Model the fold of this input.
Amino acid sequence: MTMRTTNSVVHTEKPQEARTNKYFIVRVPVRAFFLGILAWIVVLNSIAQETFVRFVDVDGELIAEVPAQHQGEQIYLPVDAVKEVFDPDMTDQYNHPRKRLTLKTKGKQIRVQIGNAVVNIDPGGQTHTLPTPPIIIAQQPVLPITFFTQVLPELNNLEAIYNPSLQRVQLRPKGTWTPTVTDDSANWAIIIDPGHGGADDRGCESNTGLLEKDIVLTLAKQLQRISKQQGMQIYLTRQTDVKKTHLERIQVAKRNQGQLFLSLHCNASFSPYETGIKIYLNNPKGQLRFPSNVQSEPIGQRLNILAQANFLKQSRDFAHALQTELNFLTETPIQIAELPLLALSEVYMPAVVLELGYLSNVEDLEKLSNAEYITSVAQAIARAFQRYISSTNPSVRATVTEQ
Ligand SMILES: [Zn+2]
Done:
């Protein structure tokens, strides 16, 4: 704005020159043009640098949003972020000549040296080596994000999960999702049902050739590995790329006295904009909306539907546990829908269908093609198992009825 005013002043003051000397007329816009470009670069730079790391609690509620600095692949946070996230009473001292930063928090003294990855904690003489050392940016000492995801959670008896793609750190009380509940979970038989399989039933397919049947099997096997370490017994309805009927899948669940059934699928849509994880559970009331259907079923079938109603609350609880854990992987909250579901019919235990994303959507496809993402989904589901199991009243869980 000020630039324009100056220009018009120049023009009105020297109309003669402006008309006669065309170089002058040209020079002013050129200068304005370059100043404009410069202003844009400044704006773009500030946008590029103005990223934030969000810290959330166990329920996903925001604790603090702190500005982040990027240096190459690394993310650094200001020292003040320690106050915002962990301890408002933290004090810090920076010794410029020695490049030494001392933090006092929760009765501990943490000493770090710029350019040195070793963190010293007293009293106790503990040391911790960070993957990257603290550095100086804009004459201020900054700490690598690992200081916030490893050192500080440890001191505060917390655990942290860092989602780099969302720049989000979740802090939870220690033991929330490492298996301190193995006594409980060891008795649990969980059935994972990777949808589809075999040459005839590939499920959805992406334009890059990624197949639903392969994604869900990879995930199921990872889940089995992770959960075994946590003492849960996980049974898969198929171990390889084979076709299995619905009945065969249910038989796996029955044979192993499953107490929880998770069916894994992917989505596809004609709309490339359809996106995201979806959680479905089988609501028998949804089925009873079609009374003529129900009446035409043999009596045994009707009883089965009623038997499933016994598990609706538990299915909802598990769906919510999944939602809470998987929300951590996405920007948009995951929805739970209750529908009459063929995939879960005659499954006599709490059961949920998890749709991992749309193979027809570019962003979803990119995620589902990424092995690290699949691992983080597996970890989230394993945490959901723990969350669900620990919330379940043991006396309720032996109510699996034979049909
Ligand atoms: Zn499917």
Q: What stands out?
A: The chain has two domains: 52-173, 182-391. The pocket of zinc ion is lined by residues 195-196, 203, 212, 265 (CB under 6 Å). The chain is about 40% helix and 25% strand. The chain has a mean pLDDT of 80.
